[in-house]
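Good morning C.,

I know you're traveling, so I'll keep this short. The sequence:
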Amino acid sequence: MYNKLIPTRIVEITGVFGAGYIPNNPSIPESIAKTLENDFRRKACDRAEHLKVSYIIDNTLAQKANINKHNRIDDLIDRQGNLTSQELAELKSGLEWVDQEACNFVNHPKWRIDMVIRRGGVAQAWPLFRHEAWRDFNNGRIMKPHIIIFITASLPIIQRTYQDPNFQEQRLKNPRKYCDTPERAFIVQQEWSEQFREIPYLWHMEGLQTIERTADDAKALTTPIINKLILSHNTLGFEIIPRFSVFISHSHKDKAFAMRLQSALELYHVNCFLSDLDVFSRYEEDFKREIELRNFTILILTAEVLESKWVKYEFDTTLECEKEQGRRKLIVIGLDDQVLKSESPIPAQIKDKVHVDMILNYQCADGLNEFVNRLMDTIIKHEHANLESESLKAR
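The tokens, ready to paste straight into the viewer:
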């Protein structure tokens, strides 16, 4: 069951437009949210639960809620530093309104959200208010962040971005959001970096995290940001784990191939447990538990496997788990055609008990990368089938 005691975690993403932060399609918050939902889960005790992640871009949220209010706030932000006390109070009130809109989205009664990736919020307000004015503004905020990620870029990267035709087109559409030159964007970034170190709210937690942008693609930032979030489980209150996890069963002679397969799968955020026969005999029950917890067991089938009592144990344990859990768990990779065709106990049981499209022949693939693409398709297809089966049983 979902633990309602853990509230929605707010992760703010910020950076100077044209420096660390650039507009993308998809946006950086959208790319992070979709990757987390598709490739990761939330660890709960001894099982993994669905990780529900959404994203908010304050500017877009305000536009949809009230275009006139949005335009007024935009104007006040553009003139910040030259505002009267009345206008400053109006800006504060406007940002509080955006906060309330964001809070309404997060707390909608029809859905629950584990995490929100937000562009805006506290981090964006700090350079506007600073010091006492910011403290006064922040004390009344409804949605305070658990983590702020500040995206930066080196001057050569910013200069390259400013020369990009797509970026130049974005600047022409909304020139007020961008600095006139890459050099000015770099200076503002340095100013923000110094200002963020003064934010008092962040020092009692893991706080401000910095990521350096090295490319113009949102997806290039997604992995390092997610890695930061994975390491921030103490602040988040829960662990983020890869959506798919597999137990790789192999003979000792096939360990080199098993390690290559592990490395290839980890590029897809698949968590792999590689059985180690040297410790297996001492921790048999622990290995059984590993098989039970994993989405799948991947059996690397070769002639050597037929002589291994430990691989036979892993094979039998997986079949037992399939019965107990009511889900398909065994995926077989045949490295040798003749072994697959033989009538030895393991190949015979495979032909009798393993779904036909979960038996993959490595020799039919054009190298490891092409084979792993096929393997991932198999993992995704059968995990979806398992989840649908579990959902039907729960009704």
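Safe travels,
E.
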